[in-house]
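Reading group handout, session on sequence-to-structure problems. Before we discuss, look at one worked example. The prompt was deliberately terse, the way you'd type it at a terminal:

> structure GAE domain-containing protein

The input record follows.
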Amino acid sequence: GGGGGGGAPAAAAAAGDGGMSIVAYNKNGIQIQFDMSKHPSNPQLTQVNATYTNNNPFPVSSFVFQAAVPKHAKLQVNPPSASVIPANGSGSVTQVFRLSNPMYAEKRMVMKIKMEYDANGGHVSEMAQVDNFPAGI
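And the output record:
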C-alpha cells in the first residue's frame, strides 16, 4: 500500500488565507461573517466576502446592508446574492465588498453598518459598529 506522493502545498496555500475571518455582527438571530483576503500585490486592497445567516424561525426579507468606512478609506459594495435570508440558518446570502485603505498599517479598520429588513410581520432597522477587524486590513 502506501503511496499518495507529494501534495501541492502552493495550491493549498492559495485556496485559503487562514485566520482572516471575523463575526462582524450577531444579534436578533442575524449573524454576519466577514471573510477577508488581501490583494496579492497591493496591500491597501482587501476583498471582504460577507455572509449573512438568519437563525430565526422565520425568514428575513427585503434585506439591505449598508456600510461606511472612515474618510481615509474607500468601500465599493457589490449587490447581494439575494434579498431574502431563509429561516433556521438553512441558507445564507453573500455580498462582496472591496475595501481600499491607504492607512492599513497605521490605523485599525472600523466599519459602521446599517441593515434593514422585514421579519415576522415587522420592519427592523439596526445599526452597529464593527471594530474587531484584524490589524493590517
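Points for discussion. First: Strands lie at 21-27, 30-38, 45-54, 60-68, 74-77, 92-100, 111-119, 122-130. Second: The two ends are 47 Å apart (CA to CA).
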